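Q: How would the structure tokens look for this protein?
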Amino acid sequence: MVVLQKLPRALLLALLIGSAGALGACDEEGTAEKAGKKIDNAAESMQEKAGEATEATKEAVEDAADATKKAAEDATEATKEAAEDAADATKKAAEEAEQKAKEATK
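A: Here is the predicted structure in token form.
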């Protein structure tokens, strides 16, 4: 009878010791855990690189927009100057034509 009373305690003690050993083994990384960490690191690295690429693309788009705006402003100014030159030339040609018409009627 004494043996039966001690058996559950012995079994309980064995289970506790076994559990402690199993939990202690969890501290060691297995190949799956190492692979998981490598995958996590790769994912973080990829996310950082994607963020950097996004920022670089944003800056390139802003630079292109600025360059396009500058080119449009330059083209507008050149067109305005060409129109003014054409207007001046037309006015001068009209004045010369008027002068020649007056001379022809004398």
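The radius of gyration is 45 Å.

The chain is about 90% helix and 0% strand.

Upvote if useful.
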